From TrEMBL, chains A, B:
Residue ranges annotated for the Hydroxymethylglutaryl-coenzyme A synthase C-terminal domain, each copy included: 79-353
Domain of life where this protein originates: Eukaryota
UniProt keyword terms in alphabetical order: Lipid biosynthesis, Lipid metabolism, Steroid biosynthesis, Steroid metabolism, Sterol biosynthesis, Sterol metabolism, Transferase
Annotated function: Catalyzes the condensation of acetyl-CoA with acetoacetyl-CoA to form HMG-CoA.
InterPro entries (alphabetical): HMG_CoA_synt_AS (IPR000590), HMG_CoA_synt_C_dom (IPR013746), HMG_CoA_synth_N (IPR013528), HMG_CoA_synthase_euk (IPR010122), Thiolase-like (IPR016039)
Gene from which the chain derives: HMGS_6
Name used for this protein in its record: Hydroxymethylglutaryl-CoA synthase
Pfam family, one: HMG_CoA_synt_N
Protein's pathway: Metabolic intermediate biosynthesis; (R)-mevalonate biosynthesis; (R)-mevalonate from acetyl-CoA: step 2/3
GO biological process terms on file: acetyl-CoA metabolic process; farnesyl diphosphate biosynthetic process, mevalonate pathway; sterol biosynthetic process
Species: Anthurium amnicola
Domain Hydroxymethylglutaryl-coenzyme A synthase N-terminal: from-to ranges: 1-78
Active-site feature positions: C21, H151
Length: 370, 370
């Protein structure tokens, strides 16, 4: 908010939308609804999804990551919601949660979380399909979309998810599935829902028959999630950014189906329709501004020991007061805002690393008081 | 969410909107925008604002309270937003906040918080007025609205707030202010903004000249805030419910101006236009369902010692695991959901007190597992 205030703009609406990895999707929907509502005043909306995914010591720790994705929302966008086809599934479960308020680390029931994810995927897909069919008068199947983008805590789950949609289409008797694939999936057609979530054989068989479509429709979204690790609420949109980066020159007229999942649980399947757009809001310029190759290349490698040491410092400072942060900003990109100080009243102070290319109100390094 | 699931409905959209006492207003705006958006599917929206306002030992403790307000959102409502006149002011301040994650108690800078509130009120009012004037082609002043409802942490601030709007109208040269009032306020017309927030004499003078309008336009909203104490995010809507309760038979065609404030800070002034509506969504039936007199009468008085003891237990259990709550539900109203158990994994279990008049899916007492 300080950045807006410094520019003299305090007339900004909207507050945090909080719900695990689904928060960014909720904020996106809220912001798009605002633009479509009678109270919209013609200004752009801004959605920021950001999280750091950190885990206590153990097997999940190396899957962590961190990211922030910002989205500018307005009319006549090159990326637009197909608002009528949305399929949502919400349920009260304890699959992944943060009950210990003094710790940033989650309590995770990995097996339950994966089953919840796949059940939510099934439910959202069924709703998405039936809404599509109601409005379009024909069946939906995975061939109707050019890309599928999933919330991506780890890539194996993304592979399972797409195979699961394929299996759904098989059970729905979709005509694109040939005899060979049908024969491979037939043995699993009588499994109960719960059995089907647990069956390794089904997992293997469906991934195999879906492989050629996965490579075409899903693989382009996996770049950032594979490179950065889990990003919680930014994960889905980082995966989508990967598609823009890889395919921006052939996305005109294409449909991208998105699956957002937040533990707890909240989930929605929705779709984007894309068009080339006009500069500066063209897909090619968005890809240009994203500049993913440079960002990936500019990463700095630290040893696992150094990473563990950094997390120890984070644990120590989580919710703490009265400390100064390191003055060494060598590893920050120019323009980065960073925490300098938390005072005895827990008030937080930030500075910004000098960025010669900065635009707007900022003049060199800023210190934002409270 | 469990209540919806038990009824077979998991297709529910929307997540928590979190921002101190402003959260409920953010949720209301999000929900109304949803109904106005292209993705709305014809169902009602539901906004629940709830908080318990508790303070550490000290002078603020007796101002605490607790409440929940639920609002049903849909088209053709008897209470509708005048969406074009909204005035918002956001700023980054540490006036009231909860930095200690292990405690439910806030850190409060009372003097700063009051000044922030009044500055935000001025800013929102100016924006509200200029938007009104742009669309209506005439000046706005407090005579244009029949009622003013303020976020009400304590009644003295509500009195100051309305007097502040009157002082704003005086400075804007509004014609309804007679010579006598004008003479009383003239000595303060040259005060700087900051001086005017600190001046006790201005406070006294403006409250005096505004008194007759306060009694008419504000007093009806003060019933619940005075009786229940601070309710944080439910406070504004409990104050509005007081107006419905007291005036429902004469509200047709009237305008109610609302001022929502959340520390941190987020604030918006907006207005409702009311019409009698049609049963069951008539103002008189809403007043009937609210049944404020019975709810106030059914309160149970405890001694300050017992209250302090209860807060000690709350402190002890805040963020805790592995405990059972009291089995004594004698003081709960029939139909109330209550916490029974937090297990060793911090999972929470609820039951519902038997309510012979309950409708819907519930059959007697329920235990909602995770």
């Amino acid at each position: 908010m300080q950045i807006f205030e410094e520019c003299g703009n305090t007339d900004v609406e909207g507050v945090d939308s909080t719900n695990a990895c689904y928060g960014g999707t909720a904020a996106l929907f809220n912001c798009v609804n605002w633009v479509e509502s009678s109270c919209w005043d013609g200004r752009y909306g801004l959605v920021v999804c950001t999280d750091s995914a950190v885990y206590a010591e153990g097997p999940a720790r190396p899957t962590g990551g961190a990211a922030a994705i910002a989205m500018l929302i307005g009319p006549n966008a090159p990326i637009s919601l197909e608002s009528k086809y949305r399929g949502t599934h919400m349920s009260h479960v304890y699959d992944f949660y943060k009950p210990n308020l003094a710790s940033e680390y989650p309590v995770v029931d990995g097996k339950l979380s994966q089953t919840c994810y796949l059940m939510a995927l099934d439910s959202c897909y069924n709703r998405f399909c039936s809404k599509f069919e109601k409005f379009e008068g024909r069946m939906f199947s995975i061939v109707e979309a050019d890309y599928f983008v999933f919330h991506s805590p780890y890539n194996k789950l993304v592979q399972k998810s797409f195979a699961r949609l394929y299996f759904n289409d098989f059970k729905r008797n979709c005509s694109f599935i040939g005899k060979e694939a049908r024969d491979k999936l037939e043995p699993f057609s009588t499994l109960s829902g719960d059995e089907s979530y647990q069956s390794r054989d089904l997992e293997k068989a469906s991934q195999m028959v879906a492989k050629h479509l996965y490579d075409k429709k899903v693989q382009p979204s996996t770049l950032l999630p594979k490179q950065v690790g889990n990003m919680y609420t930014a994960s889905l949109y980082a995966a989508f950014a990967s598609v823009i980066h890889k395919k921006h020159n052939i996305l005109d007229g294409q449909r991208v189906v998105m699956f957002s999942y937040g533990s707890g649980l909240t989930s929605t399947m929705f779709s984007f329709k894309l068009n080339d757009g006009q500069h500066p809001f063209s897909l090619s310029n968005i890809a240009n501004v994203l500049d993913i190759p440079r960002k990936l290349e500019s990463r700095y490698e630290v040893s696992p020991e150094k990473f563990v040491e950094t997390l120890k410092l984070m644990e120590h400072r989580y919710g703490a007061k009265d400390f100064l942060t390191s003055k060494d900003t060598a590893l920050l990109s120019p323009g980065t805002f960073y925490l300098t100080h938390v005072d005895s009243m827990y008030r937080r102070y930030y500075a910004r690393k000098v960025d010669d290319g900065a635009v707007g109100c900022a003049n060199g390094p800023q210190v934002n008081g409270h």
